[in-house]
Amino acid sequence: MLTAHPTEVRRKSIIDHRNHIAELMQLRDTGASETADGELVEGAIYRQIALLWQTRPLRRERLYVADEVEPRSLICATCSCR
């Protein structure tokens, strides 16, 4: 059984935002002006930065077991140490 502190799971959303910003910046570096969804790359970068800025590193509400199971399952599914 794997366990992690709840803040590790909460930080995943911040990591996801940072990764998406990095992907958008790489797309911009290739000279693309639009994303695959048709959104302007610059606008998408600004939007992701705003989302990152508004994402709380910690939750205000208490987490329950059910809240923690699904995100950990996703982490385990992407782990290469099977």
Radius of gyration: 16 Å
Class derived from helix and strand content? mainly alpha
Which residues form runs of ≥5 with pLDDT under 50?
A: none
Major beta sheet summary: none
Instruction: Kindly estimate the percentage of residues that lie in beta strands according to DSSP.
Output: under 5%
Question: How would you sum up the global shape?
Answer: elongated
- Please give the alpha-carbon distance between the first and last residues: 13 Å
Spell out the helices and strands N to C. Answer: HHH
Return the average pLDDT rounded to an integer.
77
Number of helices: 3
Number of strand elements: 0
Helix content: 55-70%
Please explain how this structure is put together.
With 82 residues, the protein is mostly helical. It contains three helices and no strands. The longest helix has 24 residues, at 6-29. The chain starts with 5 loop residues before the first helix and ends with a helix. The mean pLDDT is 77.
Write the layout of secondary structure elements.
Layout lengths: L5 H24 L11 H14 L10 H14 L4
Helix pairs in contact: 1-2
List keywords for this structure.
82 residues; mainly alpha; 3 helices; 0% strand
Q: Short summary of the structure?
A:
With 82 residues, the chain is mainly α. Helices cover 63% and strands 0% of the residues.
